[in-house]
């Protein structure tokens, strides 16, 4: 028997157990070089990757350690009697190996794999193997099977009173593209239910949940979310409380550091979550541009077909709209700055970024046309009417009020520096990826007031010494990191004499 | 600045750095969700996967921790000033992503990848992605390029005085197949140089180095190895002191837990090491059987072609021999028991396992035919002559003497239990994988006296209650584990009435 000890090390979504190298059970437990063990206490069982500890101050030889998250998942108290068993191979192991060997899997195989992943029975290395194997060969039938398996693995939402539940999703990569916060109040003002759950940023400078949190509380539970939607037809909340696709959370945690992003995985990830969230109608915004996720019209066409095929098969009415992904949308990058842009559009202010406004209207228009009364192109006009009349703004205030005040008052970071053009010319292009990285280094989204305020967009003339954008940060260390990266390369390409593009 | 701290946790071949979640540098360092950082001290730089620590007793907020092996690789003293930088993507990153995307890589790409892997710049997850991507699609030209890159990444051995340097390699999976310890003294007695470096067991119950260590010291450095080979023409030493293929050590550390074993990777792994070891002529022993690594004649033929193609291209004269892989070889499984079998063969004792003797003679014969004087089939007769005359035994004693006495006297484990047949019949098959697992659980190779002594082989009649094999162990915990697994299923299939196979 080994005494259970909580080890104050974070291992995220991978279960990790710690054992002293001096522990007599060690050699038998690590016996197959598999690096995995099963931890048992009473009827509880948990599969974990095994790390060996040499320092008795971290873990005495008669103890078994579990990392923070693993300890929480195991749910036993410190000091409990535990023992180790040899790892029973996950029941999906054969399917995983068949996929690695390049074979096509049936839906039962995907269900077994997704169940094991959702329950943290795979190591990070096994998850990576699954992702790469899927990336190398996957039929459309498999993408559909994976989508279904992922949708069913989560806790689904149901909206029994609403025959039509709409949603939108942007496949991302474009900083500042905060259209959801404008589309939701427009659509809700029209009366279509749009219960929007959003993520926080993982690799970007702001997710919709981060930006909405500047204006209102976003951490509401499922019951409160239902009440808000019943009353205001829409909401803009963080999806973290609702486990729509627990397997996807694990897949993403490995996909991101690897920086791989396969089409099939993306389709399964997005559509499984929308399905689990109870959506019936969905608009996908697909920005195309040289530094966006989708970089060519051919790519976009292929991806659109895949979305439509899978969406149709799982009973989602789905429209894909292609949008300009050549530069950031609006002027702000980072929660506070993006919230400023959003409110400027809703308030119909003269300085509202026109691109953010037009994109939002186009998307809202497409969604409104899911209403049979607006079919055939009347959506855009209705969206404009709701925005211009102030109805959308009133709806947004209603939603903010129902969600409650933000957890803290966020203001623009007081440290700031302008990045200037080093020669006269015209802005030819803006590297979305680089701008996002600079904003991220400045502290966004952890510091909501950090980010970038764009002072020139593509096509604008600029003279040497005039500002291209302003970096904002809340803290010195982050500020220096961001300014350092911007000094290496601003992310702007300025050409010509400022009169004509080359 | 952060003070360097050594963290008494073992992370093997993956560099891992630890940072307190309360450290102000944390958010900027972990900024891209990449999970990797660069650690700097003076001109030293090291790429590591980042883990966050919540417990200040493990790591205070003003410190940077490195795991045992990472600390050793970094080579700085505790308390040194260190700082973190954003990870510069490894220079092979593009190549890795191209391979993941299914493209063919050129040799320069493989060299960059192997260099990054050998220098621990890849996380385990990236290594897994590379392995699976290679497993899913790899041309023969790529296998050759990978082999060359891996061979050149290590410290090569050179034998300037010997135009012919022979070696053998068994692709494994068959317990007890300890032919090297018989082949080396035969070949060396003939006068062909055979400087054998072997591994310790990773997932098997004994490697050649583990078994040889029962008889002699195997940890000799490169200079001593040269002296021994100069004097006795052969040696049987552990290869761990010679870094023949550092990238392969990293690849294996991920491949094994994943339990994937692709053909191309196997060929590159084996041939790169032989090339780096300075071998000119090589015999590959390929056991084929239902529980061996290679399971069919078609598989064997394809793999043989690949070995021959790559071997030829890198200048290795190479012969592949197919052998029976249907059951363990000899009677013992585990270091002490296998050493017993080896010496019985060399001493021409009546109880020597005939299968181990015949396989060794066949392999030695093939190797001896690399001597122009013995070409055309005279090798086997010469091998038999050297074994029967006692010349091989004398050569073995000479090698043992030169390598020195074993570090400790290993004796057969005193805990033992017989596993018996539960009905009359004839042994139809023995599951190599299961027997290896039982021997491993009994403590082999860590306890050299642990293992399995086979009392029946395939074809032998047995009556209910008669022993099939005997488990030996040195320690109580291991003994119970092994007996438990054997009780679940013995690994033997016994059919019929003991007179005729079904």
Give an overview in words.
- The structure is a homodimer of 502-residue chains.
- Chain A has four domains: 2-85, Barwin-like endoglucanases; 93-153, Transferase, Pyrimidine Nucleoside Phosphorylase, Chain A, domain 3; 166-241 and 261-403, Pyrimidine Nucleoside Phosphorylase, Chain A, domain 2; 415-495, Pyrimidine nucleoside phosphorylase-like, C-terminal domain (Aldehyde Oxidoreductase, domain 3).
- Helix content of chain A is 41%, strand content 20%.
- Chain A is built from 18 helices and 19 strands.
- Chain A is globular and about 75 Å long.
- Residues 498-502 of chain A have low confidence and may be disordered.
- Chains A and B meet through strand 2, strand 5, helix 3, helix 5 and helix 10 of A and strand 2, strand 5, helix 5, helix 10 and helix 17 of B.
- Strand 5 (44-53) of chain A pairs antiparallel with strand 2 (9-10) of chain B.
Jot down its keywords.
homodimer, 502 residues, alpha/beta, Barwin-like endoglucanases, Transferase, Pyrimidine Nucleoside Phosphorylase, Chain A, domain 3, Pyrimidine Nucleoside Phosphorylase, Chain A, domain 2, 4 domains, four-stranded antiparallel sheet, 18 helices, disordered C terminus, thymidine phosphorylase activity (chains A, B), plasmid (chains A, B), Glycosyl_Trfase_fam3_N_dom (chains A, B), Thymidine/AMP_Pase (chains A, B), 1,4-alpha-oligoglucan phosphorylase activity (chains A, B)
